[in-house]
TrEMBL record:
Keyword Glycosyltransferase applies: no
Every Integrase catalytic domain range: 1-111
CDD domains for this protein: RNase_HI_RT_Ty1 (cd09272)
One Gene Ontology term, aspect cellular component: nucleus
The protein's name in its UniProt record: Integrase catalytic domain-containing protein
Region described as Disordered: spans on this chain: 93-113
Superkingdom as given in the UniProt entry: Eukaryota
SUPFAM superfamilies found in the cross-reference section: DNA/RNA polymerases, Ribonuclease H-like
Gene3D superfamilies linked to this entry: Ribonuclease H-like superfamily/Ribonuclease H
Gene Ontology MF term list: RNA binding
Length: 877
């Protein structure tokens, strides 16, 4: 740190340490040996041999104890007091000694900048924290600030650590008004803190907020194993620094990763919740009777269990825990008061050139400018047309760790929020491939033993040319040395940050793939516009990722060669991962597996459910979700977490987890106003996922004859009549479910609430069949496009697709019309399927409920039935 951060001329030659375990481990010795640093260890229990450090520890302990007592805060804030004592001590000017020049504080000696004492305030004083405008409710009575207790400082950005008196948590804030003469903890202790039982839970000390980086993989945070070792070893040292009577405990340090949407990032108040209490005495009194009733019914105990788990998830969903060595500040007391992970990145060009890494950032900027110039991204302007204001740009900086060291990277980004619709852009949408298309192609690849290769286009958006009417001047980028007379740059090609960049890239790619110069005459599918096919080959695109399917490896190689001439592309070889799906193949046995193990594990970890209690089903079969008024509603914050948890599960459903479809559909119906009951169910679903996150869809085509492909599409349709309870908009409505298999492998599934109330189970089945039929039509068109490409001998139209149902009355209604007196009220849209049956598109067959796969997507089944159905679908460990 001394050599690199502070740019010292002299190297660190030696360090004096005691014989603590963390200082004598191999990693420390290896590090010191690599940099030529001599380790001087004191003898066991000979504290005087390391007197400077021992004296510093004592000084800081005494100072921390003094300010803690003066503030009136409880001993649980000892760490905050110790951090503030360290911060203050480093900025104190020592007494002037005889013959000495004007003394300077340690901070000024190290950094060369005078200390700003206006930022310093009494530990424990009263503060008022401004509530951001975006968080204020549009009512006159809404407070514009909240009261807090000042706990200390952060290392950067002039932010402060504040205890929220009403909500009982620590926030890191910027906009603060200090009342130095008032100490709330001394004046009204009980109003500031929870009762003593609250502190039985581990105190969570928040760390500085770290903004989301453009690419988290570009930043190597810390080796977690080494950090755990540091903590295990430091536990006893921390204990020796606590006041008498304070039990030694392992501190819970964390690094906070902002999970707010991009438009909300950077706001000063993003608190870390430690607990939720209601300090409004009137509200408490009003709840006594209700809570007593709940207690008598046994519901309160259930609710409290849910609340306890919810609190833990609320903390972990906002933060990503790293057992990081902020304890260094407590044990070593380095001059830089906060030893948290250094993720500081320049936020502007000026910050970059003012940093110690100036040369690295300038080199990165130079490389980026050369790349953009070579790409002919712009042309120089000697004047800007009258009435047109050039858009501004900014630099985004990233450090990327490589085997050879740290690589500095810079990217020029347009400030897209300055664009105006109709002036700077007109279209913004970009097509993305349907996951059902990908699964169908992977099944066919297994059956036909196709080659499946993957390409990745680098900086894809920069390849698209801007239309003449959208060519916009941009201001000269910071640091760009323009030729004499150049006042702006006219964009000729797309640049990151432009709203239309995805759309333009999609159009450019389409022109390339369907152009006359392409080695093969490709046709864009009307069923899925991200699918391109020609005789013998299919290409699937998803923004900048491509999959190529073909039996002919030469066709694939020629396609790759042409695309590499057009774009800068990375050849990924045989496809391993696509859209979050891991693809594993056994070419010999013609089997293929897809899974989302990595994604499922990540969301389990995000919500602290990775090692939770396991469940055998995604939802308790005995639970019927409803809008039960006896269950308390979730507060605003937990409501957001609930929606995030359900949304995260939904992506797993879309990819490879049909077993979660019904549960996610039910939970989503209450996303607008969930209660503790719904929270309990979403926890159950995550407990099930924690036991099954390694499951994958198995596509086994060894026994399938490829000549039979046109005959291999089959579907299952079912409904659960009037089993939805809740608010009026969904009460007594039925659930539709369908499953489609290709060659015995599942490629499409759905669980959906019906839009109208069915008067009978037959009507519910007819509505469900309408839902399944529309999907069947789409899949038949998709299969036709694929087979025309890969099996040109296929005769079109395809043979009828078999659809299985368990309701004979519904089959009669869909085929012959049935009893018109009972069906005359049916909506006309549900009868179109009759025509499709008569013209040979579908053929209906009866299948008992126990054998009907779609039954598992209309209700929560017992474990035995659940496992039976989804095993038949190919979902296996």
């Amino acid at each position: 740190m001394m050599e690199h951060k502070y740019d010292r001329q002299s190297r660190v030659m030696a360090i004096r340490l005691d014989n603590a375990k963390e200082f004598i481990q191999k990693e420390v010795q290896t590090f010191c040996a690599e940099y030529g640093i001599e380790i001087k260890s004191s003898a066991l229990y000979a504290h005087e041999q390391n007197g400077t450090a021992e004296r510093a520890i004592r000084t800081l302990r005494e100072l921390a104890a003094a300010i803690l007592i003066e503030s009136g805060l409880p001993e649980v804030f000892w760490q905050e007091a110790l951090s503030t004592a360290c911060f203050t001590s480093n900025r104190l000017v020592p007494p002037k000694r005889k013959g000495e020049q004007t003394p300077k504080s340690s901070e000024e000696q190290l950094n060369g900048n005078p200390v700003d004492y206006t930022r310093m305030h009494p530990f424990g004083c009263l503060v008022y924290v401004t509530v951001p405008k975006e968080k204020r409710k549009k009512i006159l009575s809404q407070h514009r600030a909240w009261k807090g207790i000042f706990l200390g400082y952060t290392r950067t950005l002039k932010q402060y650590r504040v205890w929220n008196i009403s909500k009982k948590y620590v926030s890191i804030v910027r906009d603060v008004v200090f009342v130095d003469s008032s100490a709330p903890a001394r004046e009204s202790y009980k109003a500031c803190f929870p009762d003593s039982s609250y502190w039985k839970k581990p105190y969570v000390a928040s760390a500085p907020l770290v903004p989301i980086l453009p690419d988290p993989q570009d930043i190597e945070l810390q080796d977690k194993l080494n950090v755990r070792e540091i903590y295990d070893d430091n536990q006893r040292h921390i204990g020796t620094m606590l006041p008498e009577g304070q039990p030694a405990r392992k501190p819970n340090f964390m690094v906070v990763v902002n999970t707010l949407p991009a438009q909300q990032q950077g706001k000063p108040d993003n608190p870390i919740i430690v607990d939720e209490t209601i300090d409004d005495e009137t509200a408490k009194a009003g709840q006594v009777e209700e809570q007593a009733a709940l207690r008598r019914s046994g519901r309160l105990r259930e609710i409290e269990k849910v609340r306890t788990l919810r609190t833990a998830i609320a903390q972990s969903s906002k933060v990503r825990y790293l057992q990081h060595a902020r304890a260094i500040e407590v044990t070593a007391f380095v001059t830089a008061e906060d030893a948290s992970i250094d993720l500081d990145l320049p936020q502007s060009y000026d910050e970059a050139i003012a940093s110690k890494e100036k040369e690295g950032w300038l080199a990165a900027i130079q490389r980026e400018m050369e790349s953009l110039t070579d790409n002919k991204t712009w042309t120089a302007l000697s004047e800007v047309p009258h009435g047109i204001k050039p858009m501004n740009t900014r630099w985004v900086f990233i450090r990327k760790r490589t085997d050879s060291g740290i690589l500095h990277k810079a990217r020029l980004v347009v400030k897209g929020y300055e664009q105006r619709y109709g002036i700077h852009y007109t279209e913004t949408y970009a097509l993305v491939v349907n996951l059902r298309t990908v699964r169908a192609l992977l099944v066919i690849a297994a059956i036909l033993d196709l080659e499946v290769h993957q390409l990745d286009v680098k900086t894809a958006f920069l390849n698209a040319s801007l239309p003449l009417q959208e060519r916009t001047p941009i201001a000269l980028p910071a640091g760009y040395k323009a030729p004499t007379g150049v006042v702006a740059l006219l964009l000729l090609k797309s640049l990151y940050g432009l709203k239309q960049a995805p759309y333009l890239w999609n159009e450019d790619l389409n022109n390339t793939l369907t152009g006359e110069e392409f080695p093969y005459k490709m046709t864009r599918s009307e069923v899925d516009e991200c699918l391109y096919f020609c005789k013998g080959m299919i290409i699937v695109t998803y923004v900048d990722d491509f999959l190529i399917f073909s039996k002919d490896i030469i066709m694939i190689q020629q396609t790759k060669a042409y695309l590499m001439k057009m774009y800068e592309i990375k050849d990924m070889g045989e496809a391993k991962r696509f859209l979050g799906l891991r693809i594993r193949r056994n070419r010999t046995s013609r089997t293929l597996q897809i899974d989302q193990e990595e994604y499922c594990k990540s969301i389990l970890d995000r919500f602290s459910m990775l090692n939770s209690k396991s469940r055998q089903t995604p939802m308790d079969p005995d639970v019927r979700l409803s809008k039960d008024a006896s269950w308390p509603a979730l507060n605003e914050e937990d409501h957001e977490i609930y929606r995030s948890m359900v949304g995260s599960l939904n992506y797993a459903v879309q990819g490879s987890r049909p077993d979660l479809a019904y549960t996610v559909a039910k939970l989503g119906q209450y996303a607008h106003a969930p209660t503790e009951e719904h929270w309990k169910v979403v926890i159950w679903a995550y407990q099930y996922l924690s036991a099954t996150y390694r499951q994958s869809l198995h596509y086994n085509s060894k026994m399938v004859d490829e000549k039979d492909l046109p005959l291999l599409l089959e579907g299952y349709s079912d409904s659960d009549w009037a089993q939805t309870y809740g608010p009026e908009d969904i009460a007594r409505k039925s659930t539709s479910g369908y499953v489609y298999l290709l060659g015995g492998s599942i490629i499409s599934w759905s669980s959906k609430l019906q839009s109208v109330i069915a008067k009978s189970s037959t009507e519910a089945e007819v509505i469900a069949f309408n839902h399944a039929g529309t999907e069947g039509i789409w899949l038949r068109k998709l299969l036709s496009s694929i087979l025309v490409s890969l099996q040109p001998q296929t005769t079109l139209p395809l043979p009828p697709t078999v659809l299985y149902m368990d309701n004979t009355a519904a089959i009669t209604v869909n085929t012959t019309g049935g009893n018109q007196q009972k069906t005359k009220h049916y909506d006309l849209q549900y009868f179109w399927i009759r025509e499709k049956i008569r013209n040979g598109t579908f053929r209906l067959e009866h299948r008992g409920s126990k054998e009907l796969l779609a039954d598992a997507l209309t209700k929560s089944l017992p474990a035995s039935s659940h496992n039976y159905h989804f095993t038949r679908m190919g979902l296996l460990d």
